[in-house]
Each structure stands twice: as structure tokens, then as C-alpha cells.
Amino acid sequence: MKKIIILSLFLCLSCQQAKTITESQEATFGIVIHGGAGTILRANMTSETEAAYRKVLAEAIQVGHSILKNGGSSQEAVEKTIHVMENSPLFNAGKGAVLTADETIELDASFMHGATLDAGAISGVKTIKHPISAAIKVMEDSPHVMLSGAGADAFAASQGLEIVEPEYFLTERRINSLKRVKEAEAKEKKISSLEKEYVSQQRYGTVGCVALDLEGNLAAGTSTGGMTNKKWNRIGDAPIIGAGTYANNATCAISATGWGEFFIRSVVAHDISALMEYKGLSIQEAAHTVIHDKVGSLGGDGGVVGIDHRGNVAMEMNTPGMYRAHMDAVGSLNVKIYKDE
Amino acid sequence: MKKIIILSLFLCLSCQQAKTITESQEATFGIVIHGGAGTILRANMTSETEAAYRKVLAEAIQVGHSILKNGGSSQEAVEKTIHVMENSPLFNAGKGAVLTADETIELDASFMHGATLDAGAISGVKTIKHPISAAIKVMEDSPHVMLSGAGADAFAASQGLEIVEPEYFLTERRINSLKRVKEAEAKEKKISSLEKEYVSQQRYGTVGCVALDLEGNLAAGTSTGGMTNKKWNRIGDAPIIGAGTYANNATCAISATGWGEFFIRSVVAHDISALMEYKGLSIQEAAHTVIHDKVGSLGGDGGVVGIDHRGNVAMEMNTPGMYRAHMDAVGSLNVKIYKDE
Are A267 and B261 in contact (CB < 8 Å)? Predict the structure, then answer.
């Protein structure tokens, strides 16, 4: 027994030492965001719309970058960056979220911390202004990881989070989207083919952020309104730890966006981490494998953003576009929309 | 210590031998079930109660085994086996499920098919007699993977599944459990310590089944009432694909039971599959690693049952007991409760 204790202490000290060396070699930080993936084509985009997206992506990532640069945590960077995108009606998260078949808004979000593997998630909430903050509250101030529906709304209110009327989230654009999808649905018979069509038209907009802070801690968060015309209190991949969101200091932080059903079945975010941990793939190789060989081969599409514990970045998609941006420790800003950029 | 090493080596060699024999056999099948893991101690169990559990476990697994033996699918075997346990008030699934803090019943279930990676899940339903069948219906007859709350109940009803009054699920035993937990809660101040105590007392009962059929197809299913006194529409690991349930013909089928929050954070079921796929571990090694080194090191506890594509089986736990049973192609029945059996 004594031997075991001595061995454990030795291992513990070695770990500490290794950590210090790694940290001194690699004091870097970085942040990556996405604003959804899908059929985003130059032909369908006015220069004004394109400029508006690029402007909000730049604003959002600079908020998180500034936090990280000043020694703030990856958790705070992810939360505050996602707030900017939840506030923008351009994205399908917070204000501007898509409508359900019942013409309501049901928001999903999740957050995971790479150092502790602590996680929080909410699904189907209707009154929480910043769903990402509710996910973090679940992680920090409840004994649970995932809350849903009216219970999650009540928990957030009890914790003093900002509560708004459901109408706050509604936008003319999303009301019109639902109308168009319902008209198309009325004409169609097979829900599956309809689904495929409207999903590919209406999906883009989920937002997400991954960050590495100066302490070497990774964090990932995702926030969404889900899928236009969704029914039966559908839950997609965004609030599912392992599917839409995963963070582990040993590997990477991942936030996904895409056809959620395929991302759940492929356990996308955790699979990227597992390929790095167990097979030694780089974050780019792992993200490419999962998006193209796993999700793609099932017939799904979408994308991920990721950052590893050394600041290496992946922005991978099998769609024509993904709203995305990256900033590294140097501060160079990299905003992209189309796949071929 | 020496004895332990010799014993381990012996066990290891036996395992290798068993594996080789199994691998040389081509068409095989098998089924494994659990009825929950937790503080299950001989000291707290009457011989009548123990006999009752062993009887239902044997009845349940024989239903699935008979289907498999006659060439039926692993999907059907998993569904029909879980029906038996959902019907039994002994387990925390279907009839006999635990109560929420609001004295209601909220049931969760999920199913995954190893050949297609198709999956379905429902959470927080109140009127569906067989939640596992609702999860399968979501997979087969909706464009979604996961439905929740009243929407999931409505979907199941629209699909002709058997609907019951919420009172159907209530049992005196679970009403008393909730009372005791609430009394303890009223005395406690810190929810976290309370949580730890009542979780370890009240958790056992989730049911699950994994099967390999003669076609070589794996399937996994899990069904539960969740955690006594759960609040805010909490969702545990049972309905989360990748956490409580995962199946992939390339690796294994897994169903988990335990402290759901830790199982979500550890993405338990998918992690076992990933260790097999990417690191070449056997199902026993992978299950041991995830339950002890991953879940255990975070402070969580519980267990899993699993079967791989060659019929090798894992029944792993870090709790004093797990209700479980296994039947192989030969038909030998193996029912166990305590860890040291």
C-alpha cells in the first residue's frame, strides 16, 4: 500500500512537471466560431447580406479574443462570443431563431469545459434570452447536466438569468421561412423527401464557439433554434454532449452545425476527440474523417469548428459554405463564408 | 499480491482462449441485459426479493434469446426483452418508474441499430406504456432521432403505440421512495451532498438490452424513469445516443446504467466503441477502461452491458451490484446480481 502511495505521488509530481514544461513551451491561445453550415452560395447572397454576416462574425470573435488575450478563461470567451451571435437576428440562435411547426421558438444549447469535463445543456426553452448562459448555469449550479422544456426555463429564471417574452425571438424572416416550408409540406406527400429539401434550405444558422485560453484550458459551446418546422419537441445535436459539443484538454474542443440527426448518430464531436486520443490523428485529420467519411457516408451534411490543446484549428464542412471565423494569439482575423475561400 | 497477478494472468489467458474459440465460430448470436446498477448489497436483500429479480431477469432474456435463436433480428430481441422489464414493477422503467420532484413520471428511452447506425430516442414522456417502442418508432417513422416531452407523447399516440394514463406507472414503493428523499432533502442544505446520497440509494433500476443476431447485426436499447426526485425536466444518459446507448456492427452494442450525469460527460457507450475501433481493445478491456478509469475517476458510478460483433460479452460495473443476465448461442443462462458473483 505504501509503495502504491509513493508511486502515485511520483506520478503526480511528474504530471505537474510535464504540465509546467508544456505550458512554458506553448503559452498560446485561440478562438474559432461558426454561424451555421449549409447551402450558402454566392449566387444567392447580396453583397450587403454578405457584409452583414462578416461584420457580426468579426464582432463576435473579437469579444472572445479580447477576453483570452487579457488572460480570461476559455469558458468566458465562449459564453460572451456566443452572446453576440445570439443577439444577432442573422443567426438561428437566440433572437432570430427558426420557428417550430406550432409557430413557437424552442432553443437548445450546450457547453463543455475541457479541464474538468464538466458540462451543461438545455433543450426546448422558450424564454431564456441567452441559452448558452443557461447551459453554463446548469453545469455550475444544478446537480444535472441536461434540463429540458418548461423545467429548464424555470431553472434559468430561478438562477436570475435574463428572461424575455417568447415574442422577443421572433423575426419576420423566420416567420416567412416557416410559411414557405409549410406550403411546400402541404404539396408534398413523403415527409422524408420534404425533410431533405427543407433541411438543406433552412438549416444554416446554429452558432458555436471553441476556445483555448492561456492556462491551456479548452471550452466549447453551441446554441441553436434547431430546424424550421420541427415537430414533437424535437431535440437535435446542439444540446447533446458528444454530438454537437465536446471539450477535453487532452484532445480538443468541438462545436458542430448541420443536419442534427446525422450528427447525433455519428456522435460527431466525441468521435473527433476519440480519433485524436486513440489513433493519434491531428485535429484537421480527425475533423475531415468524421465530417466526410462518417457523417457524409450516412447521407448527412454540415460542419464543425475545433481547436486543439496546442492551438491548431479545424474548420471542416461538406456543405457549400459555413459562416466561420478564427483568431490566433497573434490576433490575425480570418472570416470566411464559402467553402472555397 | 502475487496471487492476484497469477490469477490475472490466468484470467487473461482464459479470455484470449475464449476469444479465439468464439472467433473461429462464424454464425453465432447472444444477448445481455441489465436491470440497473448501484448499491445492491446482500445485507439489504431478502431471499424473496432476490428470487423475484432473478426470475424476471431470466424471463426477460429468454424472450430475446428465443427470438434470436429462431432467426429473428437483434432489434426485435432488444425491444421484446425490454418490454418484459418495462412491465415489471421491480425495475425503474415503464411500470414502477421512479417519481420526479413534482410527483409525476417522466420516462426516457433510446435504441440504436448497429448495421445502419439508425437511432431513435424519447425523453420525458408520461403516457407511453413501452418507451423503448416509442424510441424505435421515432427511428423508423419520423425524420428525427430524438423527441421530448408532450411532443414525443403525441407522436407515439399518432403512431398507434399503446397509451396509458400516467397513473399506470405509479407504484407504492416509488411513492414512498420519493417521500423519503424529500424528507432527507428538507433536512439537508447542500443539494450536492444530498444528491450524492440519494443517487446512490435510488438509482438502480434502469433497464437495457444488447443483442447480436444470426445475421451479425448488433442492436442496443435502454429504458428508464431516471432519478428519484429529479427536477426541471432533467434528461439523463439513457436517451442520449453515445452516452447511454450505442451500437455499431464494426464494434459493439452497449447499454449503460448509472449516475447519468457522469455517463453523459464521459460519452460512455460511444467511448467503449471508439476504444475498440481505434485502439484495438477487446470489449471487456474497453468497458473496464471507461467504467473505472473514465467514469470512476470523475467520481461517477454505474455499469454497462455490451456485446461485440463476435458475441464476446462485457458486464462491467464499479458499484456493489448490477442486475444482469447473459445467454449465448448454446443457451446457457447466466443471471447475476452482486459484483462478486
Answer: no
